[in-house]
Design the sequence.
């Protein structure tokens, strides 16, 4: 492991705004703040908002600055990336920003039903060959619906992937979920408000290559069963390029740790 990475992990282990919980301890004892994040960490009754696959935490920190009346938690398995946002939040005294290092599939171990008001999914890996790993697939929607406030909460998807955008639109349609905003070219639409204009480093890279940013905002209403779309969108053509020919997505989730 690179020395710089080791240094970041050592520093982050002392950051009060970062929570890392060994899997064994999680199964044995559970997470003591589950259902009590507002009470035990944030010290206020404000809504809790998650950013899933937060990468370097640019969006989590940006949202925390824009909305001091809400609590934001960035979630990712990649600790070396998370270090940047956690460090910035501490330096800027953002008491409404925290980070949780875990796999997305384990969220129900850390949050109680109804504890979360909104979820941001920023530039996830579209997982074109693995439906059950797409972060807007039925298995994830079921999990989100349990964590979100009673009656449903808002989910935001921001992506560079035409495949992910088309798949999620179809998922919303077949499950009859209320759509609040949808655009396949965010920065040429009227929906690029102050919130959506927070741009990560990798988003800037994609924009510089002429790739449009897509955005969906919808209500994840509870369902007895979520239906998978029958339609399979066309694969993203640029995904066939070698990884050394394009930037790696900052917020991908592969459910394994490459540390």
Sequence:
């Amino acid at each position: 492991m690179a020395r710089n990475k080791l240094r970041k992990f050592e520093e982050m282990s002392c950051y009060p705004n970062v929570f890392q919980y060994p899997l064994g301890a999680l199964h044995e004892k559970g997470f003591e703040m589950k259902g009590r994040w507002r009470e035990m960490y944030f010290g206020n009754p404000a809504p809790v908002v998650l950013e899933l696959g937060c990468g370097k935490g640019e969006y989590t920190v940006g949202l925390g600055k824009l909305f001091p009346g809400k609590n934001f938690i960035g979630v990712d398995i990649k600790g070396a990336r998370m270090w940047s946002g956690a460090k910035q939040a501490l330096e800027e005294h953002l008491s409404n920003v925290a980070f949780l290092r875990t796999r997305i599939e384990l969220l129900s171990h850390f949050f109680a039903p109804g504890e979360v008001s909104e979820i941001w999914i920023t530039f996830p890996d579209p997982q074109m060959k693995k439906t059950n790993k797409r972060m807007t697939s039925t298995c994830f929607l079921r999990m989100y619906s349990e964590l979100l406030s009673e009656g449903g909460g808002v989910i935001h998807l921001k992506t560079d992937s035409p495949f992910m955008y088309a798949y999620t639109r179809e998922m919303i349609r077949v499950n009859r979920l209320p759509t609040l905003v949808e655009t396949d070219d965010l920065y040429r639409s009227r929906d690029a408000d102050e919130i959506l204009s927070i741009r990560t480093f990798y988003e800037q890279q994609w924009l510089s290559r002429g790739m449009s940013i897509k955005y969906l905002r919808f209500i994840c209403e509870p369902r007895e069963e979520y239906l998978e779309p029958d339609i399979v969108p066309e694969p993203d053509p640029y995904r066939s390029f070698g990884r050394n020919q394009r930037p790696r997505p900052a917020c991908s989730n592969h459910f394994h740790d490459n540390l």
